[in-house]
Amino acid sequence: MNSTWMTAGGSSRTSDTPYLTREGECPTKEWGSSQPLGHFYNAHDFIMNNPQFVGITPTGKTVFDYLEPYIVPGALMDSSARYPPPRCHPGTRLEIGRELKEWLNGDNVEDPMMWLFGSAGTGKSAVAQTFAEDCTKDKRHGASYFFSRTQGRNETNPVVATLAYQFSVNCPKYKSILTDRLVDDPQLFKKALPVQFQEVIIKPFMKMQDDGPLKPLVVVLDGLDECAEERAQRELIRLIAKVVREYKNLPLVWLICSRPESHLKHEFTRIPQCGKQELAMDAETRDDVERYLRDELARIKRDDFVLADLSEWPMEEDVLTILRAASSLFVFASTVIKYIDDPGGADPTKRLEALISFLKRNRKTITTNPLEGLDLLYLQILGDIPENVFPDTWRILAHLIDGTNSLRGSSARVLCNALRFDQQTFYNALRNIFSVVDVPSSQDVDHRSLRLYHASFQEFLTDPTRSGKYAIIRGEALTEVVKTCFFWHEIDTKHFHTNDGWDYELRTHNHASLPGLKWTSPETVNTISNKIAADSKQYFPRELTTSPITKKSEEFLCQLQILDFRYLIPAFTTFDLAQWIYQQEHDSSKLLRTEPINDIDLKLLEYMKLVMNEERVIPVSFPLDRVNMRRRKGGHIQYFFLGRDEKSVIIWVMHCIDAQSIHSLNADKKFSEECILQMRKELEQRGWPKYDIAVGSSDEEV
User: Fold this and answer.
1) For residue 543, is it within any domain?
2) Nephrocystin 3-like N-terminal domain spans which residues (predicted)?
């Protein structure tokens, strides 16, 4: 079908030629050319007096035509790529919303830059989105950029162009200024980021400000930690810091939201013009999570014609189970709601039942992971850790997961030294997990300990079906802690306690500092040393005796093969250690034994019988039966040998009438009559029967 067209010169003709336009339209391209034509293409013989092109260049390109190749539409506040975006649930996050409005609407914005930070899953993006939407209603929203690694919005190169696009939409005067600038330099957005900041942000807004004071517009940057490179994140922060520092009258304020990663903390704390606001996981947040969860469950019930008639759904017990697991973590609650409210039409009652079973670790009948969204978040965080660094990170997390060892609750610097890390190695191992672990600054390491922000991260790590290659199996974590404790206990005893004598309960640590500590100061070295020595005394949880053999088990067994047991404090956990050694799939006969195999063992047995007067002494039977050991009538002794060659000891437990006690001897020297009498006296005080036979003297005396 033919149409009537107007040539650019004014005559009409019928044609399908592409460079012609419909009546009233302008041609856009010359045939065979990729270059657009102007609105006055081929026009002549007319005069324009003081023409003003608004948003259109003389070539016919609008400012948006120039911007389009360089922007990321998905990063906009109202982008379809983010629909529906995360928003604060009605009635939640009221306090932070109020504080942000006060920051923006104050008579004089003292901090033209605000850093809103919080651990992973606390709802930073929802706060940023809600604040940006509120600013739009008040005509104060200048531009936003929502970073996302998973959606490919993880580069800083398009940021300025994307902000400029929104400034042009929201502010006609800015659009006019930018249009003129792009006519002069069409390649502006191919230049370095600092140049773009100067030409596209600073100069246009300075020119606008020259015409009179303006209310500041808000720029929201969310998820800065999602950028691919730390260097790019730092550069963007420094460029914004330069803007607020050197151009104080510029009508822009900046809200930047991110996780509290170490390098970001370092950058923001050095900017005097930057306020800081934390999304803490406190009681108010827990209340907000509960409001959100209950409201959303009520919505699901209203929207389902079957559930609408079930007055008992959801059961209060189930709601409380979810709330206990979610605590103050918004992402946990939102993940739960997405799972129950399955868009595929699954039965919400069945989904809730599966979720509760999952949370109670009764997963035999569950085929899906209700917390898959949360797991993806944790996997992304751990995936940022370099492979060569992760073993160090793993060791730290292993100590945090084992809640039974004293080192876990020690200060961050004590734990750092216990792991034999220097300061740089310690913080390097932690730098990518600041969003899930509360890491004290170097100024607070002596007063604060490391802690996981949320229990869900520990549950994720200890479940290999969820955490995969990042898993921390509990048995492996316990073994790692035991390895650390035995290492320092041996160091302490060999250097400072070889002459402590019989009564180990009197052992103190008022001595010089342990050798090998890597991060101390003259003021803290003794405190750190004493704490490690006290907390690392022979620690062996009985739980390990039922744990499967792992690579960590093999490493610990190798450590024990060369361990000097002579001065270690004997404890009832020593029997658990012996049971564990017995269970290993190795030839452990030379390390653990009940019969003497060399001259040193014979000496050890002789010394023990000398002290105990050779009565009621029997070897331990492996595997250990603790119940039968306790049921034996009082007044007998059970023993075994532990260690290699001259580093061996004989360990025995005394079953008295009302109590048990454990002791050890090494073969360094024989005992004098005085020493033996003292030992016997102490044993009698602990309930052992009195001796009737006199003690003979020994060749070498202690």
Assistant:
1) no
2) 99-259
